[in-house]
C-alpha cells in the first residue's frame, strides 16, 4: 500500500505539495558549454512534473564552484533564461521545482573555468581525479580568507535571487556530500583557527550565514537545506563531527525552513556516532519537515512515512530509470531497474 504517498503536504503558507514523492537532485552533466540548461533538460524535467516537488540537479552559484563537466549554473542571464524554460514547462504541467544551489569547494577543478586555484575552508585536498576526466587530479585548495567567505555568502544569496527570477518555487541549499558547505562542518576538511573553525560554534557559522542570507533574500518558506551528518562521499568521518551537527540542527530549529533533507545514498546504514541511520538522527534532532532518501522503494517509503519517520521521500536512481515513476507507483506497476548505463542519455 502506497496510498499515503499520494496525500498532499502543506509545507507552509506558500507551498503545498500534491504528493509526498520528491525527485532527488541528480547531476546529469548535460548543460551546454555555457552551463545553460538545454531543451533536452526542459523535456526531461517536464516529464517528471507529477512529482510532488522536483529538486533540480546541483546548480553552481559561480564559476569556481564547478567540479564536473557540463553542470548547469545560475549566475549568468543566459543560465537564468535557460532555467526559465525548465520551470515554465514544469509549471505548465502543474509541477513544482526547487533549484539546488551548489559550490563544490575543494572538489572543484580550475580546468572548468580557466583558473589556477581552488578555495575551501582549509588547505586539505581530496584524493583522486575528476570522474569521467581521469587526467585531472584534484588540487590542494587554498584556505578562503574571511573576505572571500563573506563574498561566498553573498553569492549564494544572489544565486537564490536568480533562481526566483528563473521561476523556481524555491531553493535547496546543497550542504551535503562533501562539497563547500559540508566541508565547513567536518573536522577532516575544516582546520581553521579563526571564527569559522576549531569548535562547533565556529564550524556552523558559515553554513548558517548562507542559510540566513538566502532566507533574507527570498524568504524562509522558499528555503530548504540538505545536510550529510554522516560523511560518506568526498570526505572522511570524524566522531567529533557529531557535536557540530547537533549544534547546527539546534540552531536551524530557530529558523523556519521549507524542509530539511538528508544527503545519503543508503539510509539503511547505521552510523555509530549518530546512534542510528541518518534519517533517525535527523528526526531526533530537528523539528523541521524531513525528507527521507537513500535506497527506498515506494513501499518502504510509504511504511516509513506511516510510522512518522519522515514526511516526504526523495527518489533518485529510480527516477532516472522511470520518467513515469509516479504513475507506475500510483497504479501499482513495476518500475524499471536503475543501472549506470542509463546515465549518458536524458529521457
Ligand atoms: C546523485 N545525488 C546527488 N545529490 C545531490 O545532493 N545533488 C546532486 O546533484 C546529486 N547528483 C547525483 C547524481 C547521480 C547520478 C546519483 C545516482 C545521485 C544523490 C541523490 O540525490 C540521492 O541522494 C541518492 O541517489 C540516493 O537516492 P536513491 O537513488 O537511492 O533514491
Ligand atoms: C553530486 C554530484 C555528483 C556527481 C556525480 C555523482 C554520481 C554518483 C554516482 C554514485 C556514487 C555513489 C557513491 C556512494 C558512496 C557510498 C559510500 C558508502
Can you describe this structure?
This protein is of the alpha/beta class. It is built from eleven helices and 14 strands. The protein has an eight-stranded parallel β-barrel, surrounded by five helices. Helix 9 (298-306) links the parallel strand 13 (290-293) and strand 14. Helix 1 runs parallel beside helix 2 and helix 3 runs parallel beside helix 6. The longest helix has 20 residues, at 146-165. The protein is globular, with a radius of gyration of 19 Å. It starts with 8 loop residues before the first strand and ends in a 17-residue tail after the last helix. Residues 24-27, 57-58, 100, 174, 176-177, 226, 263, 265, 293-295, 315-318, 343 line the site of ligand FNR. Keywords: Oxidoreductase. This is N-ethylmaleimide reductase. Its EC number is 1.-.-.-.
Amino acid at each position: 500500500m502506497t496510498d499515503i504517498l499520494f496525500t498532499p503536504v502543506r509545507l507552509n503558507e506558500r507551498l503545498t505539495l500534491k504528493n509526498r514523492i520528491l525527485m532527488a537532485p541528480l547531476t546529469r552533466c548535460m548543460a551546454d558549454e555555457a552551463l545553460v540548461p538545454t531543451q533536452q533538460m526542459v523535456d526531461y524535467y517536464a516529464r517528471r512534473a507529477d512529482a510532488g516537488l522536483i529538486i533540480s540537479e546541483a546548480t553552481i552559484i559561480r564559476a569556481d564552484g564547478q567540479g564536473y563537466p557540463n553542470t548547469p549554473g545560475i549566475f549568468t542571464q543566459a543560465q537564468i533564461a535557460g532555467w526559465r524554460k525548465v520551470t515554465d514547462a514544469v509549471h505548465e504541467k502543474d509541477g513544482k521545482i526547487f533549484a539546488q544551489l551548489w559550490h563544490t569547494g575543494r572538489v572543484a577543478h580550475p580546468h572548468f573555468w580557466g583558473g589556477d586555484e581552488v578555495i575551501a575552508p582549509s588547505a586539505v585536498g581530496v584524493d583522486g581525479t575528476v570522474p569521467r576526466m581521469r587526467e585531472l587530479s584534484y588540487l590542494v585548495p587554498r584556505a578562503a580568507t574571511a573576505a572571500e567567505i563573506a563574498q561566498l555568502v553573498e553569492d549564494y544569496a544572489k544565486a537564490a535571487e536568480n533562481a526566483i527570477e528563473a521561476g523556481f518555487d524555491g531553493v535547496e541549499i546543497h550542504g551535503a556530500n562533501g562539497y563547500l558547505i559540508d566541508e565547513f562542518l567536518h573536522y577532516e576538511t575544516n582546520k581553521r583557527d579563526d571564527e569559522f573553525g576549531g569548535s562547533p560554534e565556529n564550524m556552523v557559522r558559515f553554513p548558517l550565514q548562507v542559510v540566513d542570507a538566502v532566507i533574507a533574500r527570498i524568504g524562509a518558506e522558499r528555503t530548504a537545506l540538505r545536510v550529510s551528518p554522516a560523511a560518506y562521499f568526498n570526505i572522511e568521518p570524524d566522531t567529533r563531527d557529531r557535536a557540530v551537527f547537533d549544534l547546527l540542527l539546534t540552531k536551524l530549529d530557530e529558523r523556519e525552513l521549507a524542509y530539511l533533507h538528508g544527503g545519503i545514498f543508503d539510509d539503511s546504514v547505521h552510523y555509530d556516532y549518530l546512534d542510528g541511520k541518518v534519517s533517525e538522527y535527523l528526526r531526533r534532532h530537528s523539528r523541521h519537515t524531513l525528507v527521507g532518501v537513500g535506497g527506498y522503494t515506494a513501499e518502504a517509503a510509504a511504511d516509513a512515512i506511516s510510522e512518522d519517520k519522515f514526511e516526504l521521500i526523495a527518489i533518485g536512481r529510480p527516477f532516472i530509470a522511470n520518467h513515469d515513476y509516479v504513475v507506475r507507483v500510483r497504479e501499482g506497476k513495476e518500475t524499471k531497474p536503475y543501472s549506470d548505463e542509463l546515465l549518458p542519455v536524458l529521457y
